[in-house]
């Protein structure tokens, strides 16, 4: 039988049970023909034989207990204390055939007949109707009569198979007996048949049976389901003045009736203007903060003075708090809350301060150390910057920069300062004393002069004849360079002079080489006279080498002799016209390439080193190291004793409810039973109360020597609003010190950006949310094509507006707040209560049909949705 997307069947059993032809010893008996066929290697039939096979299927006598996990759900939950008395307790199984698997009866053909489950669920009063003893339970005739049994081939209304549209199958056993509200019950899962396959009880006397599972529960009081409790709700059933409390100001009898709106106030409510005579009278009661001699005067609290010292009344909001008895009275409530909760709030503030005490002690120790070190620094370090640099020089190797140590950078290869200048050895050498500095020039030893002298770049060197035997040959270097330069510029060489010089070199040649040298010189002379080619460069080089060779260089003598002989043998090759100019170019002095030299800026170095070592400077090592371990310091004065502004994440509405619930919602005690009304949050009340509470809390914290920043507002949360995107708590006010002077109480300038002040709140008094605390609450539009029409159900797919904060006043008043929802818009919406999802449930008073699938369809309890017109929620009427 189909019920929406669910289909119910009376039983489900394995197909093998269809082979049963009877029952034997409490077990289904199967008798069936079996044919065995023999085949050869090729698969051809060789023989066949048919016979009858008889065997028994398992029955109730073969079950000892249920396997773990066989039961997937017990309803109500074991230990429940609020079960609906009109709903059937039941169990669900993992195996869809388990309740009928061991039934002592053959399985009927599909779609025909009936099957009684071999298990049944019995529910009764403990001790009166059933008694548990170990793994057995004794059933009284009374409870037996409430759970009658049949034969294996009969139907049992309280057992069925459920199939959904996805094909998921659930086997379920129920107890459809009536339940009494406020009563304790025991549910027991027991076998319906004994080992012989007969019913376990007939109602004629007590029956003791095995118990495979059991649990306890209690029915709720009063009787009724979600639908019953929701149907009893009456929208708008409250006094129109709910949310507004009368105020009497007897000092001015002509003031008339005044009223104070509570934290939850009537929809669209406003505050009447304060009579001027009341304002003047209250203002006259205030005393000055100090007398003519500057002594403090004990008088009425000056709300706002903690944030506007001296003249809080000059601000718009401060004037209201101090001269309007309505706002002053609400601030006094906050003051009283602070007094009552002083121990709790102080402990919470200490917990939020974390390691503040340790940080303050660390700052004190640092300041003391800096003062002591600063005194030593000023007394013991030289006043002259260079002298101070010289004194600190040995430590520069331990001063590290991103590019290296200061000592390494100051004495780098491109700096004139020598590497060891800042070492301790250099200081000892240059220290004044007779053995080291007695003969130095006057003024040469002071550090400034030493540093200046060492910081000069050296002059470039003059050209030299290093490696050339010019002196041995009687050649003047300057004359040679002049001749070389002139020949290089004109491109002409005086060959006769060169031949004469060759002859001189031959005369000066080593005796062992002299003959060969003269032969070479003569050939050069003939070539110069005839103007013929000759290897001038090679010949002159060999003659110069022969004239300067060392007597002890035997191998060099042998090499030169062979070279001169070889030159004579191949003369005049190689000969060229440009070999002498090329030789002259090779003798040119190369342009000097001096390494770069950048003098050190000694003034900047001295200032930087002094700043690095100065223990009182902002970059002092101790200061940086200690302050880096403390977060949240004031950058302008990091050495001041740190004071933090503790932020207590504490919804104050709960404190107000516990102390003065009638001020959370004035008139809450007079709300009729089962009433539902709409009110709104009152930001003016919240501002005044939090100002008074923070005033008292700041004074209490300072009295207890708990450091707190000047102008701090520790408590900023009244309602439990949360950001819908991040889930973070949303403050109701900003810091009171940031409130503009010309802003009034409850204005948007007192709230964080984007935070709402007036939110819709729905208040319900009744037992609905005691019985069903998980009820789904939301708003949905009643508009159809732009027109409000409460005659139709909400549009399909309409957006749900969910509450963002909620709470309870007393035991039976529940409220739901809709953050950012304009209270006036409730007139265009439905208020919806949806029964919380609790799985599949069945009523025990909806059907008496003996057919399981019919009973299940008729008793199936559909989820309930209750719609309440938003325009009926205002106690003052639409």
Terminal Cα separation, in Å? 47 Å
Report the sheet-strand fraction: 15-25%
Q: What value does the average pLDDT take?
A: 86
Structural class: alpha+beta
Number of helices: 26
Helix content: 25-40%
Strand order of the largest sheet: 1-2-11-12-7-6
Shape: flat
Instruction: Using the CA coordinates, give the radius of gyration.
Output: 55 Å
User: Largest beta sheet, briefly?
Assistant: 6 strands, antiparallel
Report the strand count.
30
* Residue runs with pLDDT of under 50 for 5 or more positions: none
Walk me through this protein's architecture:
By secondary structure, the chain is an alpha+beta fold. Helix content is 31%, strand content 17%. It contains 26 helices and 30 strands. The strands form 9 sheets. It has a 6-stranded antiparallel β-sheet, with helices on one face. Strands 16, 19, 22, 23, 27 and 28 form a 6-stranded mixed β-sheet that branches. Strands 3-4-5 form a 3-stranded antiparallel β-sheet, with no helix packed on it. A hairpin with a 5-residue loop joins strand 4 and strand 5. Helix 5 packs across helix 6. The chain starts with a strand and ends in a 9-residue tail after the last strand.
Question: What's the gist of this structure?
Answer:
The protein has 878 residues and is an alpha+beta fold. It is built from 26 helices and 30 strands.
Q: What are the SSEs and their pairings?
A:
Blueprint: E1 2-3, E2 6-9, E3 20-24, E4 27-39, E5 45-56, E6 71-75, E7 90-93, H1 98-101, E8 119-124, E9 130-133, E10 136-139, H2 141-146, E11 159-164, E12 169-174, E13 184-191, E14 207-210, E15 213-218, H3 226-231, E16 234-235, E17 244-247, E18 258-261, E19 264-265, H4 276-285, H5 316-323, H6 325-340, H7 342-353, H8 356-380, H9 385-392, E20 400-401, E21 404-405, H10 406-410, H11 424-429, H12 434-437, H13 447-454, H14 470-473, H15 477-490, H16 495-507, H17 514-530, H18 536-548, H19 554-570, H20 579-586, H21 602-613, H22 621-627, H23 652-664, E22 675-681, H24 683-703, E23 760-765, H25 768-771, E24 776-781, E25 783-784, E26 787-788, E27 805-809, E28 813-818, E29 829-834, H26 852-859, E30 865-869
Parallel strand pairs: 16-22
Antiparallel strand pairs: 1-2, 2-11, 3-4, 4-5, 6-7, 7-12, 8-13, 9-10, 10-14, 11-12, 13-15, 17-18, 19-22, 20-21, 22-23, 23-28, 24-29, 25-26, 27-28, 29-30
């Amino acid at each position: 039988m189909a019920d929406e997307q669910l289909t119910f069947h009376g039983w489900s059993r394995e197909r093998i049970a269809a082979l049963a032809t009877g029952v034997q010893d409490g077990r289904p008996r199967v008798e069936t023909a079996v044919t065995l066929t023999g085949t050869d290697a090729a698969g051809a039939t060789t023989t066949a034989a048919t016979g009858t096979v008889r065997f028994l299927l398992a029955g109730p006598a073969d079950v000892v207990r249920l396997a773990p996990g066989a039961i997937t759900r017990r309803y109500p939950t074991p230990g429940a204390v609020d079960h609906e008395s009109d709903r059937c307790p039941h169990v669900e199984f993992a195996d869809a055939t388990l309740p009928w698997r061991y039934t002592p009866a053959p399985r009927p053909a599909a779609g025909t007949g009936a099957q009684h489950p071999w298990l049944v669920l019995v529910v009764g009063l403990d001790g009166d109707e059933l008694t548990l003893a170990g793994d057995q339970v004794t059933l009284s005739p009374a409870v037996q009569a409430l759970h009658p049994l049949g034969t294996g081939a009969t139907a049992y209304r309280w057992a069925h198979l459920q199939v959904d549209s996805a094909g998921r199958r659930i086997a379920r056993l129920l107890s459809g007996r009536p339940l009494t509200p406020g009563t304790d019950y025991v549910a027991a899962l027991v076998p319906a048949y004994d080992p012989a396959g007969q019913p376990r009880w007939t109602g004629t006397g007590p029956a003791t049976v095995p118990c495979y599972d059991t649990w306890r529960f209690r029915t709720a009081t009063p009787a009724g389901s979600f639908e019953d409790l929701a149907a009893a709700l009456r929208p708008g059933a409250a006094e129109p003045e709910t949310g507004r409390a009368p105020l009497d100001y007897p000092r001015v009898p002509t003031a008339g009736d005044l009223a104070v709106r509570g934290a939850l106030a009537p929809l669209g409510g406003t505050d009447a203007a304060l009579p001027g005579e009341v304002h003047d009278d209250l203002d006259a009661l205030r005393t000055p903060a100090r007398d003519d001699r500057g002594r403090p005067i004990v008088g009425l609290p000056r709300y706002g003075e903690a944030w506007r010292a001296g003249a809080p009344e000059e601000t718009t909001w401060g004037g209201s708090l101090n001269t309007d008895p309505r706002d002053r009275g609400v601030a006094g409530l906050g003051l009283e809350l602070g007094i009552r909760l002083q121990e709790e709030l102080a402990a919470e503030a200490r917990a939020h301060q974390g390691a503040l005490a340790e940080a303050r002690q660390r700052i004190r120790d640092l300041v003391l150390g800096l003062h002591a070190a600063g005194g030593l620094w000023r007394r013991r370090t030289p006043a002259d910057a260079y002298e101070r640099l010289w004194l600190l020089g040995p430590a520069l190797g331990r001063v590290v920069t991103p590019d290296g140590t200061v000592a390494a950078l100051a004495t780098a290869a491109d700096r004139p300062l020598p590497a060891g200048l800042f070492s301790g050895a250099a200081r000892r050498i240059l220290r004044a004393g007779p053995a080291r500095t007695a003969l130095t020039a006057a003024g040469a030893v002071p550090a400034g002069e030493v540093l200046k002298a060492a910081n000069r770049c050296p002059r470039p060197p003059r050209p030299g004849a290093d490696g050339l035997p010019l002196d041995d040959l009687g050649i003047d270097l300057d004359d040679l360079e002049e001749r070389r330069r002139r020949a290089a510029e004109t491109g002409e060489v005086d060959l006769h002079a060169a031949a004469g010089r060759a002859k001189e070199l031959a005369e000066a040649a080593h005796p062992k080489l002299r003959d060969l040298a003269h032969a070479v010189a003569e050939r050069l002379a003939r070539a110069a006279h005839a103007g013929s080619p000759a290897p001038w460069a090679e010949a002159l080089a060999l003659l110069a080498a022969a004239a300067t060779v060392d007597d002890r260089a035997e191998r060099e003598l042998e090499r030169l002799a062979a070279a001169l002989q070889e030159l004579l043998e191949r003369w005049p090759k190689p000969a060229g016209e440009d070999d002498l100019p090329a030789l002259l170019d090779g003798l040119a002095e190369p342009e000097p390439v001096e390494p770069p030299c950048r003098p050190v800026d000694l003034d900047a170095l001295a200032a930087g080193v002094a700043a690095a070592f100065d223990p009182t400077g902002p970059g002092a090592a101790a200061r940086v190291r200690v302050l880096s371990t403390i977060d949240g310091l004031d950058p302008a004065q990091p050495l001041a004793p740190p004071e933090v502004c503790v932020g207590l994440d504490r919804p104050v509405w709960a404190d107000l409810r516990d102390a003065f619930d009638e001020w959370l919602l004035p008139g809450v005690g007079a709300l009729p039973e089962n009433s539902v009304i709409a009110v709104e949050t009152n930001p003016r009340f919240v501002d005044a109360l939090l100002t008074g509470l923070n005033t008292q809390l700041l004074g209490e914290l300072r009295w207890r020597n708990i450091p707190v920043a000047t102008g701090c507002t520790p408590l900023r949360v009244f309602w439990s609003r949360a950001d819908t995107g991040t889930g973070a708590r949303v403050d109701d006010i900003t810091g009171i010190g940031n409130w503009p002077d010309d802003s009034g109480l409850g204005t948007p300038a007192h709230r964080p950006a984007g935070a709402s002040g007036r939110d819709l709140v729905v208040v319900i008094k009744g037992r609905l949310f005691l019985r069903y605390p998980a009820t789904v609450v939301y708003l949905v539009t009643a508009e159809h094509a732009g027109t409000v029409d409460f005659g139709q159900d909400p549009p399909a797919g309409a957006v749900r507006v969910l509450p963002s904060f909620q709470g309870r006043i007393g035991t039976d008043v529940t409220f739901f707040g809709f953050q950012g929802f304009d209270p006036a818009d409730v007139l265009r919406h439905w208020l919806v209560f949806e029964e919380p999802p609790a799985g599949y449930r069945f009523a025990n008073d909806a059907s008496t049909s003996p057919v399981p699938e019919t009973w299940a369809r008729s008793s199936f309890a559909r989820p309930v949705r209750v719609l309440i017109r938003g325009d009926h929620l205002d106690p003052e009427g639409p």
